[in-house]
Amino acid sequence: MSSTSRAPSVRFEHLTKIYSGRSDHPTVAVQDVTLSITAGSLTVLVGSSGSGKTTLLRSVNRMVTPTSGRVLIDDHDVSELDAVKLRRTIGYVMQESGLLPHKRVIDNIAIVPRLNGATKASARERALELMTVVGLDQRLATRFPAELSGGQQQRVGVARALAANPRLMLMDEPFGAVDPIVRSDLQRELRQLQDQLGITILFVTHDIAEALALGDQIVVLAERGRIAQQGTGAELIAQPADEFVADFLGLGAGRDLHLQDSDGTQLVMDADGRPIGRLSGHRR
Ligand SMILES: Nc1ncnc2c1ncn2[C@@H]1O[C@H](COP(=O)(O)OP(=O)(O)OP(=O)(O)O)[C@@H](O)[C@H]1O
Ligand SMILES: [Mg+2]
């Protein structure tokens, strides 16, 4: 998973996670989930709150230990890999920005390269480069996280995850806290970045429009991580597997989504011919 190796595949095999819970009964967060993520794809896990998205994501970098089942990166069982090394080679953008409040922007971004032994000067140089990559003005480098807008903080989170040149990125609702315009900017930039880097990205959201705009593959999760459907956005819209997926896509509520080509971009239209989003460009 170093910068020179190719992007890995990820496979969940019969993964079950039961949180024992200190205050109440045990919670089955995900139950017997088997799922393959194609190497080099941007795969979106979409599902309602509590469906187990964060649990699945964190089982990849061993921040969650499964109750049973396993996660493979390429053919390696993650439970047999060194947890610290694993976390430093996988980019992780947390649901809440997760920035260190007492460190300046530049040092937040430089954390992992520093931990990996880069000199302060070279880690900072890389951090400045990455600020440009994610569309942050380098003049913000010396600010503290609290002095940034929500969208700027999220960009810092993405830059920090990219700093170790990961071949695999886990992104947990990274654009949740920003307004719709900034959000679609961030989505576009992430797509471009993914097209350039060709890394494997596992992206979590509960927003179906975001899933359609970003995903090469979309995985619709129901309760306890049950996989209701996996496919491209176009496949989901054309043939939702069941009522649950249809409802989730808004197809049940008379929205009757369909696709329309506009200068090579596939727009998702509702029954009244209003565009509600666009479909991710498919590269394979
Ligand atoms: N540390 C924990 N202890 C006990 N229960 C937990 C813990 N973390 C998650 N859960 C429970 O496991 C289930 C799945 O949680 P998870 O955070 O994976 O869902 P999610 O799909 O990411 O939800 P959201 O969209 O709200 O972020 C929920 O019922 C949740 O309450
Ligand atoms: Mg979550």
TrEMBL record:
<dbReference type="InterPro" id="IPR003593">
    <property type="entry name" value="AAA+_ATPase"/>
</dbReference>
<dbReference type="InterPro" id="IPR003439">
    <property type="entry name" value="ABC_transporter-like_ATP-bd"/>
</dbReference>
<keyword id="KW-0547">Nucleotide-binding</keyword>
<dbReference type="InterPro" id="IPR017871">
    <property type="entry name" value="ABC_transporter-like_CS"/>
</dbReference>
<dbReference type="InterPro" id="IPR027417">
    <property type="entry name" value="P-loop_NTPase"/>
</dbReference>
<dbReference type="GO" id="GO:0016887">
    <property type="term" value="F:ATP hydrolysis activity"/>
</dbReference>
<feature type="domain" description="ABC transporter">
    <location>
        <begin position="10"/>
        <end position="249"/>
    </location>
</feature>
<keyword id="KW-0813">Transport</keyword>
<dbReference type="GO" id="GO:0015418">
    <property type="term" value="F:ABC-type quaternary ammonium compound transporting activity"/>
</dbReference>
<protein>
    <recommendedName>
        <fullName>ABC-type quaternary amine transporter</fullName>
        <ecNumber>7.6.2.9</ecNumber>
    </recommendedName>
</protein>
<dbReference type="GO" id="GO:0005524">
    <property type="term" value="F:ATP binding"/>
</dbReference>
<keyword id="KW-0067">ATP-binding</keyword>
<dbReference type="Pfam" id="PF00005">
    <property type="entry name" value="ABC_tran"/>
</dbReference>
<dbReference type="InterPro" id="IPR051921">
    <property type="entry name" value="ABC_osmolyte_uptake_ATP-bind"/>
</dbReference>
